[in-house]
Design goal:
By secondary structure, the chain is mostly helical. Helices cover 58% and strands 0% of the residues. It is built from 13 helices and no strands. Helix 3 packs parallel to helix 6, helix 4 packs parallel to helix 11 (213-244) and helix 6 (125-134) packs parallel to helix 7 (149-160). It starts with 19 loop residues before the first helix and ends with a helix. The relative contact order is 0.11.
Length: 278
């Protein structure tokens, strides 16, 4: 086979130039995998990279949700559609990523599980921030991070701020839709609970989509995000069950039963309930 022609325009002298590895800080990223098992177990690197890449993607989700929260109070919703579509696709990547960890067998994991100590994904600050930003708030969860003043400050700020759903409902009210006052003035440090008045607002939007097209589209974008999170949670539970069965989690949780409880959680309950009432 003929050798590919080397294009003369390619830059080969990278002295004092920005490079691919320099821009991406690969000196830090690719040296951040430090297996603790001794001797190092082959599959611990998989376990570390799986969770590090998850955190990188969660960082992007937080970045996008912050942008959504900044823009929702404005007069137009369409700029948020791309943001939420991106969040949905990131969550889809995280869902598919479980198939890589599922190649870790129980006998392989037990050979290095002890080095994790009490560390657990349950302690992920970024995952908790995503939960809070989407509305699943529980002040007790902040106690897990009291040892970390920066994490505590971030979580307390997210706890006290309106969620994406709160912001959307306030936006709908600003357009004259009859979102109940008690919902608009509720304590945003608590999870949103299903409200009959909010359900009626969404029944109107879904019954007359042409009159509320951007709100209608926003509803579906939020459902897309929640659906991906539900699928991610289910896959997480199954992979954990596949690898450790019904053992207690390293962080002290009940493991699979703990994860199972979250599968049916709803961030945006009325957006799911409205389908039954149309």
């Amino acid at each position: 086979m003929a050798q590919r022609e080397f294009e003369s325009s390619l830059v080969t002298d990278h002295a004092d130039r920005m490079t691919y590895s320099g821009y991406l800080r690969l000196d830090k990223v690719l040296t951040a995998q430090d297996p603790l098992s001794s001797p190092p177990h082959h599959d611990e690197t998989l376990f570390i990279i799986q969770h590090q890449t998850t955190e990188l993607w969660l960082k992007l989700v937080i970045h996008e949700l912050k942008a959504a929260l900044d823009h929702i109070p404005g007069g137009r919703l369409d700029a948020r559609f791309k943001i939420l579509a991106r969040v949905k696709n990131v969550l889809h990547v995280l869902l598919e990523q479980w198939s890589v960890l599922a190649t870790l067998t129980p006998s392989e994991y037990t050979q290095f599980r002890d080095v994790l100590g009490s560390s657990s994904g349950f302690q992920s600050v970024q995952y908790r921030l995503v939960e809070f930003m989407l509305g699943n708030k529980d002040e007790r969860m902040i106690n897990v991070h009291r040892h970390d003043t920066d994490a505590t400050a971030q979580l307390e700020a997210a706890l006290k701020a309106p969620s994406v759903y709160d912001a959307f409902l306030r936006h709908l009210a600003s357009r004259g839709l009859p979102v109940p006052t008690d919902v608009l003035n509720r304590d945003v440090t608590k999870p949103h609970e299903s409200n009959a008045g909010v359900l009626e607002v969404f029944k109107n939007i879904y019954t007359h989509p042409n009159e509320h097209w951007d709100a209608y589209e926003m509803c579906e974008k939020l459902v897309d995000v929640e659906e991906q999170i539900s699928l991610w949670r289910f896959r997480h539970m199954r992979v954990v069950e596949r690898i450790i069965g019904y053992k207690t989690g390293t962080g002290g949780s009940s493991g699979v039963p703990f994860l199972r409880k979250m599968i049916d959680h709803r961030f945006f309950p009325e957006l799911w309930e409205v389908r039954t009432h149309l």
